[in-house]
Write a structure and sequence with these properties.
This protein is of the alpha+beta class. It is built from six helices and 15 strands.
């Protein structure tokens, strides 16, 4: 039989000539795909706080209110438009009180009738608390009664009148306490009404986020967050720490000691019972 075989020598020589360039370009393509996927994963896992503080000057962006103390004496509370947390509804913070020094000491609104304080520094019946509504109006409600949450550094106070123009903060539930993870950024408020940033610290050995009485926070090792850190002082007791999600702030704790907070998720049920004893019919807004 006659053979009609083909000569493959020429295409093989051509492939050998171009093979290195083909392999290099393929490798570059794979690296680009991997980098794109990695960037996408990093963006997807980024915390809202990181996006909100990016590119901002901490000396300006930490102040929730402009000229807080000089204006507060006239019960004027002007939001700082340059604050990194300006788009968050922080009206749950009582901005001023009628009796205690400093007058900036206050609590956090957890229902239209209830405010949460640190037990070691709470304000008693008859004290007036001022709140700034999102629209700008400043309103005052007096404290009617208090209940201490047993075995904790938390105190619930009831108000003498309903507070309708201020949105109570959402409270972290035991079921969502897993978000209190080591290294997660949190919004830490002080008595000067600064929106500072810290990283959560590990829970004590053998303790879970839903059961631990306290959690700690520290200055971040990440430079962007570290620039917004401001060390909590003794006069900041009872001020809140928030997680931030796509819907806004979530109350995680109140300052108990320097760098440590009462973990509200561990005591949400007990807080609710105190609320029911003082003024029934209001439920915590749980995350």
């Amino acid at each position: 039989m006659e053979s009609h075989g083909m000569n493959f020598a020429l295409p093989i020589r051509a492939f050998k000539a171009f093979a290195p360039e083909v392999m290099v370009n393929a490798a570059k393509l794979l690296l680009c795909v991997a980098a794109f996927a990695s960037a996408g994963a990093a963006g997807a896992s980024e915390y809202p706080i990181d996006r909100m503080i990016a590119g901002r000057d901490p000396s300006v962006a930490m102040k929730i209110y402009d000229e807080f103390y000089s204006n507060a004496s006239n019960l004027v509370f002007k939001p700082n438009p340059g604050c990194w947390a300006a788009r968050l509804d922080l009206s749950c913070l009582s901005v001023w009180n009628t009796s205690a020094e400093p007058h900036s000491h206050g609590g956090t609104l957890i229902s239209p009738w209830h405010v949460l304080f640190a037990k070691h520094w709470y304000l008693g019946p008859g004290t007036g608390l001022y709140f700034r509504e999102p629209g700008g109006r400043v309103v005052m409600r007096k404290i009617a009664g208090v209940r201490h949450v047993g075995g904790t550094d938390l105190t619930v106070a009831s108000l003498a009148g309903e507070l309708r123009g201020v949105e109570p903060v959402r409270v972290l539930s035991a079921g969502s306490a897993g978000e209190l993870t080591n290294g997660a950024p949190v919004l830490v408020v002080n008595q000067d009404k600064f929106a500072t940033v810290a990283d959560l610290s590990p829970f004590p050995a053998g303790k879970t986020a839903s059961a631990s009485a306290k959690f700690a926070f520290r200055k971040s090792a990440e430079p962007g967050r570290a620039a917004f850190f401001f060390r909590v002082r003794s006069m900041d007791s009872g001020s809140p720490t928030f997680l931030v999600d796509g819907r806004g702030p979530v109350l995680a704790g109140l300052h108990w000691e320097v760098g440590e907070d009462s973990n509200v998720a561990a005591y949400a049920g007990a807080i609710q019972r105190c609320m029911d004893e003082l003024k029934p019919g209001c439920k915590l807004k749980m995350k």
